[in-house]
Design brief:
The protein has 73 residues and is of the alpha+beta class. It is globular and about 40 Å long. Strand 2 and strand 3 form a beta hairpin. The protein has one domain: Arc Repressor Mutant, subunit A (Orthogonal Bundle). It is built from 4 helices and 3 strands; from the N terminus they run αβααββα. Strands 1-3-2 form a 3-stranded antiparallel beta sheet. This is Transcriptional regulator, AlpA family.
């Protein structure tokens, strides 16, 4: 998430670019995950833009930690 952009924090959602920057992945990787249901939940806005709720993003990240723990066991 870009520092200083209070608007995104206030509405509680991230853009795809925010997620790409946070994870350090390519846009194509994000869309591949989205198509295969391996990425965070997204919402399409009426203008066509895609947003990821911060709560959904954090939940998705936490689920990755849980999956990692299952594989190690």
């Amino acid at each position: 998430m870009k520092k200083g952009n209070v608007y995104r924090i206030v509405i509680g959602s991230l853009s795809i670019d925010d997620v790409l920057e946070d994870l350090g992945i390519a846009r194509s990787t994000f869309y591949e995950w989205r198509v295969t249901n391996r990425g965070p939940k997204v919402k399409r806005l009426p203008n066509g833009a895609i947003r990821i709720r911060i709560a959904d993003y954090e939940e998705w990240l936490a689920s990755l930690d849980e999956d990692e723990g299952k594989e190690a066991a």
